[in-house]
Amino acid sequence: MKHNTITNIGSINVDHVYRVPYFVKPGETLSSKSYQRVLGGKGANQSVALARAGEAVKHIGVVGDDHTWIIEELKSSKVDTSSIEVGSVATGHALIQVDDNAENCILLFAGANHELSMNSLSGKLTDVEKGSWVLFQNEMPNLDKMISLAKEKGARIAVNPAPFDGAAKEIDYNLVDLLIVNDLEAEELAKTKCQGDLSKLAELCPVVIITRGTQGAICYSENETIEVPSFKVEAVDTTGAGDTFVGYILSSIAQELPLKDAMLRASAASALAVTKPGASVAIPTSAEVKQFLESIE
After folding, report:
1. CA nearest to 52, candidates 294, 225, 266, 277
2. Which residues, other chains included, contact 229 with Cβ-Cβ below 8 Å and sequence gap of 6+?
3. Total-model pTM
4. What are phi and psi of 192, to 5 degrees?
5. CA distance linking residue 33 with residue 216, whole number of Å
């Protein structure tokens, strides 16, 4: 089904990934088993996921002149990079430890991501078509103002407010059409906005989706509650699984798939993503997800 380009206003990072037997302890020096330098950042990962899901996606963000190879990497994934600026601050980056249980811990430096100004963004949103989707995460500055600006342009708003902090609590959720959070973020948001009642998150915006790792995912909407299980796979690296889910769920909703089918497609995509090392490099294509779903029917 043909629909408008999805715009993603999001972070672009260099991920420095270290495989370790366990997470390093305070005061300890630990040798890593391997090292990779790859494209990362929640925004960039989600743009790649959208593109691999078959969407036309334009990314808005900023990198430093120290890592312009990232732009070529995004282009190679068929992401429109014409609205990515090259700024004067070092590119955002993350130091990621991945342990023998495929869990990760991440140290993040925002860098050039926080160079995107409201004036610049306003200019980049002039060609956003009414009713098209604009996606946000919480690794960019002025999140609440950026959401308001996109809404003024007539866009539909999808938000993945991760990492969840004070800025995520300040969002006007009345402006949000699709909210995707993990279980911990959902609990924090419910405490702030809904007296701790998760089911009342559906009163904040039309569709709320909570990812719960190996426990699957749940969707609250105005008309129904949908639960889908996680798919059993051999996990190698969970980095980027959530970003894969976000890209695929937004793609599926933009394609107007029924919510249950959209949830299953996104869950399958994130399951496939954890079977390979890395974040953006592990995101499957739409054809791979389709084949996986057909194989387990």
Report:
1. 266
2. 216, 267
3. 0.93
4. -75, -40
5. 31
Strands 13-19 and 34-40: antiparallel
Beta strands in the chain (DSSP E): 6-9, 13-19, 34-40, 57-64, 80-87, 92-98, 104-109, 133-137, 156-160, 178-182, 207-211, 217-221, 225-228
List, edge to edge, every strand of the sheet that includes 104-109.
34-40, 13-19, 92-98, 104-109
User: Would you state the structure tokens that stand for residue 264, as one six-digit string?
Assistant: 């299953």
For residue 51, give the amino acid letter.
A
Between CA 95 and CA 15 the distance in angstroms is 6
Sheet strands side by side (includes 6-9): 80-87, 57-64, 6-9, 133-137, 156-160, 178-182, 207-211, 217-221, 225-228
DSSP state of 4: P
Strand bridging mode 133-137 / 6-9 = parallel
Give residue-wise pLDDT tens across range 28-55.
999 999 999 989 999 999 999 999 999 9
For residue 159, list its beta bridge partners: 136, 179
Active site residues: 243
Degrees (nearest 5) of the Cα angle 47, 52, 53?
95
**Other CB atoms within 10 A of residue 15 CB:** 24
Q: Mind listing the pLDDT tens digit for each residue in 286-297?
A: 999 999 999 987
Which residue is it, tokens 């743009």? Answer: 47
Closest CA to 45 of 287, 239, 207, 288: 239
Contact 94, 108 (CB under 8 A): yes
